[in-house]
Structures are given as C-alpha cells and as structure tokens.
Amino acid sequence: MIYTNVTWVKSFFILGFPGLSQQYYGPVSALLFFVYLAIAIGNIFILAFVMREKSLQKPTYLVFCHLALNDLTFGSVTLPKIISKYWFGDSVISFYGCFTQMFFVHYLGSAHSFILLVMALDRFIAICIPLRYPVLITNNIISALCAFAWFIPVSLMVTIVLHTLTLPFCNSNIIVQCYCDHIAITALGCEYIREVQIVAFGLAMFSLLLPLGFIIFSYFVIIIAVMRMASSEGRIRTLSTCTPQLLITCLYYMPRCFVYLANNVGFTVSVPVRIVVVMLYSLLPAALNPIIYCFKTKAIKESLKRKFYSRKINLISKTG
C-alpha cells in the first residue's frame, strides 16, 4: 500500500508501564514523584552549593555543575508527564509536544556523553600532564568545552527529529513507553521506518561512541600513568581523585551498552521489563550523581563538613 506523507495522528497516548493494574497507579506515581524530587533537590543543591562556595569554583566542579544541570533538565522533561498520567489520568500528549519531548530526551543524552568526555579530559590532563594542567585547564577553557558539549548534539538531534517527521503516521497513536523517544515513535510509522531508524541509529552511535572511545582511552592511559608511580600511597591518592568520574561514567554507559549488546545478540525481554530497565538507567544516575559528588569528592565533602560544624557551633553558642 502507498501512503501519502500526511500525518493523520494529531496526538499520542502515553501507555507507561503496560499491564499495570489501576490499584498501583497511586504508588507508582508517588514513587516517580519522589524520584523527581530527589533529582530536583539533589542537582539544584549541587548547582547552588558550587556557585556559593568560592573554593569549589574550579574546572572539575564546573563540569559537575553542567552534569547536574543536564540531569535536572532530563528529569523535568521526562517525569512530569508520566506522573500526571498515573496521578490525574492525563495520558494524552500533542503530536508536536511528543516530538519536542523526543528531541530533548535524545539531545540531553548526547550532551551528557560529551560532558563526560570533557570530564575525562580534565582528569587525563590533571594526572598525565600535571605541570601543564593550570595552563591547559582553566575555568574559561572548561566553560568553553562544556558549551561545545551542549552545542554539538543540537544539529544531530534536529536532523533525527526532522527525518522522523517525514514518516506518515496512520496507525496506532499509543506510545509504548513512559515518554516519547525515537524507537517508540518510529514504531507507529506506516512506511520508510527502517531507513529512518538506521539514520537515527548511526547518529546516536556517533554521539555515544565517540565520547566513549576517548573516555576509555583516557582512563586506560591514566591507569598506566598511576601504575608507574613509585609510591603506593600516591597511586591510591591519585586514583581516588578519579573515583567520582568513574562511578558517574559507569552509571551512564554500562546499562546502555548492556541493552544495546543484548538487542544485537538476539537477547529479548518483554516490553514491560524493557520499559522498566530504560527508566532505571535513564533516571537513577540523575538521582544518584549528587550523592556521588557529595560523598566521593573530597573538596565537596570537606566543604559540607565545615558548613555543618560551623552551623552546629553557632547553634550551640546561641542556645548556651
């Protein structure tokens, strides 16, 4: 059958978690709301704390701020709609609203990858070329690199969205996901689906694998440099400065790589399980990253301790 390139679908229906009984709508919406609160409070706290503390206004912590802003925006783009579905029964999203959400979902994911690349570059220069670090990595340079990390994916994601808009949508309008993403939307197209999916997959792999390639290379070189250190204490201290970055990078890439590999080797899971897995690897890092910043970064942890003890002393002096 030949279809004209006319969109008959005027809005989409967010399915959420397929097969979820209505009696669980309340608990699920409450859980998603608390996840959103954790993302919002944690990442806003990191942004405010780093901006307030002059001692933390350094390249490494500026990168953390960009990651926090990315995580906060991603949570704000994806969670409110699915929360309103289970809380208020509002499952409908407009046609262009769905495409706008798709753009930001994939754009923020790609920007996150490039920001992680900047973070790896910061550690690479700090450990492998320490004498050049103050010259090569300044606040202005890091800000410029992070700006590029935000800018590079724009054209890629606009291309994906515009290409997807060429699909004729004349079948179901049910998005089998908790938010609009490329896979869920293209599954509803009438024809040319494979072509659109291949182009999107190529661009997505470029935005994910290019940063990942450099990240793997940089940490491989870092490990070699650390192993060559004579002092075991120095090795431990140097590696500890990379702990937050490694945890954040693993939280972001490992679940995605597992899902992509599983799909390519023919390992399939049911739709509800796939949706839960996607939600977990999309949202858990955004909620956990602020905790990693606070408890695995020595400077932030020490600043928090000083703030806590100074407030405690002031409180005791007032009550005394």
What report would you give on this structure?
With about 325 residues, this protein is an all-alpha fold. It has 11 helices and 3 strands. It has helices spanning about 25-50, 60-90, 95-130, 135, 140-165, 180-185, 195-225, 230-240, 245-265, 270-295, 300-320; strands at about 10-15, 90-95, 175. It has a 3-stranded mixed beta sheet with strand order 2-1-3. α3 (about 95-130) runs antiparallel to α5 (about 140-165). The protein is globular and about 65 Å long.
Main sheet makeup: 3 strands, mixed
Give the CA-CA distance, first to last residue: 84 Å
| Order of H and E elements | EHHEHHHEHHHHHH
In the sheet with the most strands, the strands line up as: 2-1-3
Could you name the ranges where pLDDT drops below 50 across 5 or more consecutive residues?
Answer: 1-6
3D shape: globular
Structural class: mainly alpha
The gyration radius over C-alpha positions equals 22 Å
What percentage of amino acids are in beta strands? under 5%
The count of helical stretches stands at 11
Residue-averaged pLDDT: 86
Give the SSE layout.
Elements: E1 11-14, H1 25-52, H2 59-88, E2 92-94, H3 95-128, H4 133-136, H5 139-165, E3 174-175, H6 182-186, H7 193-227, H8 232-240, H9 243-264, H10 271-296, H11 298-319
Parallel strand pairs: 1-3
Antiparallel strand pairs: 1-2
Helix pairs in contact: 1-2, 1-10, 2-3, 2-5, 2-10, 3-5, 3-7, 3-9, 5-7, 9-10, 10-11
How would you describe this structure in keywords?
320 residues; 3 strands; mainly alpha
